[in-house]
Amino acid sequence: MTDVERLLRSALVPVDPPVSLTDRLELRLTETVDIAAEELADWELSTMRDPRNWGRTAAAGAVLAAAGGTLVLVRARQQHKKRQAGALKALEQSIEDVSTDIRKRLGR
Amino acid sequence: MPEPDKAALDRAFTELYKAHLRDVYSYSYYRVGNHHDAEDLTEQTFLQAYRHFERAQRESHGRPLRPWLIRIAHNLAANYYRDRSRKPQTQLEDAAIVSEPHPTAELVEQREELEEVLAGVANLPDDRREALIMRFALDMDNREISRALGRTEGATKVLIHRAIRQLEESLKAEEPAA
């Protein structure tokens, strides 16, 4: 490896994406999957009207059920984050309530 | 009509996303030179990849899909410059190079050296710059880079060799005369 190659290796280091991007992107991908699942459900309902399609519809229903479980890691992570955010907000609210109470008492 | 093996496809896409998010972001960042546009480019790359994933997987015959993913980012970046008449930023807004609150003289010198390298990379012709980003930031081999750039492996090897030589010459030209 030449000196320039060593310098390139040091300068062009991999860059981690910001958390805000991963959150936004995972949400958009989850939404995209949900839309695809809804389209499948619409197709399923429309084909149910024709008895000749009932076999295919049943198969598609099984796929739809499985599709609900896709990107499950992404979704679970988002829900975990939401729960964490909710707990933090509740804690902030409790602290605010206590300080308001103390201020009121001192005011008296 | 949606394909019946969609659940398996979505699982495979999730794996692809998890494995290569950093690659796509790194490529985008060094390509456009700022975090804001790199975020947009990364997002658009994965959304487009999701739309065409089934076909890509079918046509890959088991080969890794990273070059395909980077090729999407490459094409989107080209559109980004064409549509907005922008040029890549020479100065990276927040380069991931040594950053210390109280740097020593040695660190300052090292930082300056790396900044010169990055500026040199930014000034290379597009294809040479891209090849170096793929080789050094993403650690892709010649075969992967050739697939991402749509060239032969031989042509890719020559491209990288010439890019390194050009950069070497530009860095030598920057050096103060002894």
Tell me what the structure shows.
The complex is a heterodimer of chains A (108) and B (178). By secondary structure, chain A is mainly α. Chain A has one domain (18-107). Chain A is built from four helices and no strands. Chain A is flat. Chain B has 178 residues and is mainly α. Chain B has two domains: 1-89, Rna Polymerase Sigma Factor, Chain: A (Orthogonal Bundle), CATH 1.10.1740; 102-178, Arc Repressor Mutant, subunit A (Orthogonal Bundle), CATH 1.10.10. Helix content of chain B is 74%, strand content 0%. Chain B is globular, with a radius of gyration of 18 Å. The mean pLDDT of chain B is 86.
Which characteristics define this entry?
heterodimer; A: 108 residues; mainly alpha; flat; B: 178 residues; Rna Polymerase Sigma Factor, Chain: A; Arc Repressor Mutant, subunit A; 2 domains; 7 helices; globular
CATH level 1 class label of the largest domain in chain B? Mainly Alpha
Question: pLDDT under 50 segments of chain A (min length 5)?
Answer: 61-70
Strand content of chain B: under 5%
Beta-strand content bin of chain A: under 5%
Number of helices of chain B: 7
CATH T-level fold name of the largest domain in chain B: Rna Polymerase Sigma Factor, Chain: A
The best one-word shape of chain B is globular
Helix content of chain A: over 70%
Based on secondary structure, the structural category of chain B is: mainly alpha
Largest interface: A-B, 38 and 45 residues
Q: Give the rounded overall mean pLDDT of chain A.
A: 66
Radius of gyration of chain B: 18 Å
Question: How can the largest sheet of chain B be summarized?
Answer: none
Distance between the termini of chain A: 76 Å
CATH architectural name of the largest domain in chain B? Orthogonal Bundle
Give the helix level of chain B as a range of percent.
Answer: over 70%
**What is the H/E order of chain A?**
HHHH
Number of folding domains of chain B? 2
Question: What string, H for helix and E for strand, traces the elements of chain B in order?
Answer: HHHHHHH
Q: What's the overall average pLDDT of chain B, rounded? A: 86
